[in-house]
């Protein structure tokens, strides 16, 4: 085999290493996030926000299957209430009621189809702030692939969420550099974390979403217990939890 023949394999290995490094960084930031302050016996609350514009239909279908895992893992450490928020089409941005089980959230998601439109991330962040002022929200998860808004405004709104104690855990699908920059700023200013994923890495996204759900429902110690059960990379990357 010639040197030229070996290059694609080397490139693939480099991408794999880069992906592992990004996941490491994400989980380390989750582990370093202060545990939610909550009265004993109360359930965690998490907003699950999704870009439902046309480009995201394949990942939306995948997310419908992954959300059940979030509930199952969170239930083991005290339970979790999740609210679905999505935007699509011409200025449509909606929030579901709060769901305490995967069945209800799945029904809400299956009623939605993706439509072409511009991003409305600022509306998602404002909504999270209003919800948390009404009753504490422990974390916001956002999954998207693009950003077409004022990054300074998004940063300001993310900073407000940080002051409210609502970390944003942002999952970036694809390679859009403008989106990447904005998503990293949102995560940093809110006290959360950002991670890129590929549409084909459903298992990895499942574990990362489950890790955030466990954190929101039980804090850092619950996250460490979860990583011990799963083993592998999750365990290696959360050993710094105290």
Molecular structure report:
The chain is of the alpha/beta class and about 240 residues long. It has a single domain, classed as Rossmann fold, CATH 3.40.50. About 55% of the residues lie in helices and about 15% in strands. The protein has eight helices and six strands; from the N terminus they run H-E-H-E-E-H-H-E-H-E-H-E-H-H. A six-stranded mixed sheet has the order 3-2-1-4-5-6, with helices on both faces. The termini are far apart. The N terminus is likely disordered.
What are the key terms here?
56% helix; Rossmann fold; single chain; 242 residues
Oligomeric state as shown = single chain
Number of strands: 6
CATH class value: Alpha Beta
Biggest sheet character: 6 strands, mixed
Task: Note the topology.
Elements: H1 3-32, E1 44-51, H2 57-75, E2 80-88, E3 92-99, H3 102-110, H4 121-134, E4 139-144, H5 151-164, E5 168-173, H6 177-190, E6 193-197, H7 202-230, H8 232-237
Parallel strand pairs: 1-2, 1-4, 4-5, 5-6
Antiparallel strand pairs: 2-3
Helix pairs in contact: 1-7, 2-3, 2-7, 4-5, 5-6
Summarize the structure.
With 242 residues, the protein is an alpha/beta fold.
